[in-house]
């Protein structure tokens, strides 16, 4: 007769088979509830009831895992066209939705800033941006380069504002900058004094919209360098 210990081991439910999809799904749950900073191989191994070394069969390192989690979150970004809207409005809506995902997860936004993303959801967004640029009359070469530039600006904006939002004292820093600008003498800083009213003007949304329009206007009028 089998011992009670043997019986318990036989009757214990089998663990789900380890897979890349399962690892990414577990990491995504940790990100949603505790933030990307808590996503480590050791933590996920504990969640999945396995050893850390087993995870490296499916993901090479934490950076690759973070990029995969970010791509899953980018699946929330809709690339469906807005009926009746012009191409600039649709492009603004798309890049804003992309930026909002990163803004909500500044730790992952920093990953996007330094990692060459290549996941299916990211490529879907890049393809949609390229299609809208083409629709707007941006030539193929500049359109290809503008995709990278637009998403880079959106990513950097999300990193900046998402990180500041979570950092204590950010409002005090903004007040200190405003005070420093107001206190500058026109004799020592003539150009800052002349434009000081505009240096901190405008909402974040207004500035992001202006940056998009500036990039688009430049992309339509600026050819690629010779031999590019």
From TrEMBL:
Location of the DNA-binding region in this protein: 40-59
One BP term from GO: negative regulation of DNA-templated transcription
NADP recorded as keyword: no
Domain HTH tetR-type: 17-77
Keywords: DNA-binding, Transcription, Transcription regulation
UniProt cross-references to InterPro entries, sorted A to Z: Homeodomain-like_sf, HTH-type_TetR-like_transc_reg, HTH_TetR, Repressor_TetR_C, Tet_transcr_reg_TetR-rel_C_sf
Annotated GO MF terms: DNA-binding transcription factor activity; transcription cis-regulatory region binding
PANTHER family per the UniProt record, alphabetical: HTH-TYPE TRANSCRIPTIONAL REGULATOR RUTR (PTHR30055), TRANSCRIPTIONAL REGULATORY PROTEIN (PTHR30055:SF151)
Protein name: AcrR family transcriptional regulator
Species of the source: Amycolatopsis jiangsuensis
């Amino acid at each position: 007769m089998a011992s009670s210990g043997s019986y318990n081991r036989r009757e214990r439910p089998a663990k789900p088979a380890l897979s890349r999809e399962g690892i990414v799904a577990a990491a995504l749950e940790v990100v949603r509830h505790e933030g990307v900073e808590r996503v480590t191989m050791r933590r996920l191994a504990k969640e999945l009831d396995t050893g850390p070394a087993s995870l490296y069969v499916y993901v090479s390192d934490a950076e690759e895992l973070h990029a995969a989690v970010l791509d899953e979150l980018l699946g929330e970004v809709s690339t469906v066209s807005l009926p009746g809207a012009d191409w600039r409005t649709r492009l603004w809506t798309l890049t804003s939705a992309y930026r909002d995902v990163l803004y909500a997860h500044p730790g992952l936004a920093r990953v996007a800033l330094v990692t060459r993303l290549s996941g299916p959801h990211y490529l879907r967004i890049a393809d949609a941006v390229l299609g809208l640029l083409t629709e707007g009359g941006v030539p193929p070469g500049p359109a290809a380069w503008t995709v990278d530039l637009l998403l880079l600006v959106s990513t950097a904006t999300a990193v900046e504002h998402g990180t500041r939002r979570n950092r204590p004292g950010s409002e005090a820093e903004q007040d200190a900058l405003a005070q420093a600008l107001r206190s500058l003498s026109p004799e020592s800083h003539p150009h800052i004094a002349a434009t000081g009213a505009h240096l901190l003007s405008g909402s974040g949304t207004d500035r992001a919209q202006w940056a998009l329009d500036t990039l688009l206007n430049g992309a339509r009028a600026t050819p690629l360098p010779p031999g590019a």
